Amino acid sequence: MKMNAGVVMVLFAVAVLAGTGCAAAANAPLKVAVAGNTTIDDGVYYTINGAMPTVKSTRYTAPIVLNRTMNIKYMIIKNGTVKYGIINHALTGNITNRTYPKLIFNQTPIIELENGTYYRIKNGNMTLYSGPIALTGNTILKYFKNSTNTTMMGIIKNTPAIAVKKAKWIKVKVKKCTEEAVSGDTTGPTDG
Questions:
Q1: Most buried of 13, 70, 77, 169 (most Cβ within 10 A)?
Q2: 143 in Cβ contact with 153 (< 8 Å)
Q3: pLDDT in tens, 46-96
Q4: 3-state SS, residue 92
Q5: Predicted TM-score of the model (pTM)
């Protein structure tokens, strides 16, 4: 399978083997693989140069300090599911003693602010920061030095995205169960 322009193509094959005597094959673990038969490990990969993230991009290992205006494209792989998104961060205002948020990835992007920082999600109420903020769905988070609208330090936008590649589905008919099918040999059936 070829990776095209950074889009990770993941193929899931499910065989319904009812009545074929291949119970062992039906219960075998399903592996997720990409080009070169490399199994994808769960994790987060990201770029800050505008490129689409792939498993060859920077792997997330520690919080990212948002200390400048930047765009982070991310790919979260968890249990075979791939989620894409973009975090846009913009510094605003001429604020002295500015603090910077930290971006953390789990199953969703999370923002940590400094204690004493205020924030507002979309046009909601001004809230004193008290713990991590999950950026679920399309989220706009504005953060402030104090509880007045005149001290905005920055804006963080999360835009989840889905990379879709058209796939052609075909039906596969299983004629008989072979030992190769159970062991994972993909060279095909043997005579004999």
A1: 77
A2: yes
A3: 999 999 999 999 999 999 999 999 999 999 988 878 889 999 999 998 888
A4: coil
A5: 0.64
